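Notes, Module 5: Reading structure tokens.

Key idea: the token line is not a picture. It is a compressed description, and you learn to read it the same way you learned to read a sequence, by spotting repeated patterns. We will look at two proteins. The first is printed below with its tokens.
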Amino acid sequence: MDQRVLNKLVESVSNTVKSFKKCEIECLIRLFQNLVKTDGRIDKTGIDRNTFQEILHNIFGMTDDMLMNRVFCAFDKDNDNHINVKEWVKGLSVFLRGTFEEKLKFCFEVYYLNGDGYISQEEIFNMLKNSLYQQSSEEESDEAIQELVDLTLKKMDYDNDGKISFADFEKAVKEERLLLEVFGQCLPEAKKCLDFEVLAFRHIPISRF
């Protein structure tokens, strides 16, 4: 990529992403370019769903297909089924260096599966069923999961409307931080983040940090 074009792109991205230095943004853009395998205009291409899920699995250690798909949707802000370079850097800023509030919003966005802004009983049931290893019969398992759904709503549904709003989720998680990923992993572990940063930023001279 032409250095002038790269510099312009770095400047544009840095206006909206404050958690990375410009040299780090440049590294993430170069990594994006390698992932999409193009020497041309990277602002005209993106990472597809399958490639992104491979990244989540191989680099960040995620294993839940349903939630990896939802993480893709959370990154893909314009809903075009590709993660463009700005979405890539912005999403990684939350993954790697997001504030508690940013991660709170991100997890909630991952968990409301149908995009209506609420986590419904059906969505809670499906996420819990998807994340729990079942050893008993399906009928017994469904009954046990429904009990978990009822317990979850009792703990998190503060306005008793049968679903979890962002206000409900925020209040519950602020009272008990372990509830942040209550329905399954949608953020990488700290060590995976550190390993990724070491890999992504390895060519930056120490003096630039």
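Here is the second protein, with the sequence above and the tokens below, as before.
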Amino acid sequence: PESEIIPVLRFLTDEISISEEDIPKSISRCPRLLISSVDHQLRPALAFLKTLGFVGRDTITSRNTVLLVSNVERTLIPKIEYLEEGLGFTREEVAKMVVRSPALLTYSVDNNLVPKVEFFMEEMRGDVKELKRFPQYFSFSLERK
């Protein structure tokens, strides 16, 4: 525990300012935190998320610590690139979207984002700008819609 778990708990309390009473919530929502390297996984993910605007009142909380276990290069950046290159949003627009709806960064591009954009544009005849205003759309299921 001293070499694996304690550093993670210190990181959560000291660097993210998650209260001790919220630590169990973070762990139960994302048990992988306990086996993640602070130096190789958690701290780099936090640094990247801060560049997107997860700072101040929009900082990482016990509700979205799952983002910290996402690999920046293989998981987070491809989602950002899809929103920028695939949908034409600016980095600033994408940052606002993911801060408003952090779950966006947990969805699969191929299995969630692309099919939902296609459904929204083709079936609902929506405008991509509406997705910017309501990124929570991606959290809805398309089953039986």
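Summary for the second protein:
- The mean pLDDT is 93.
- The chain is about 55% helix and 0% strand.
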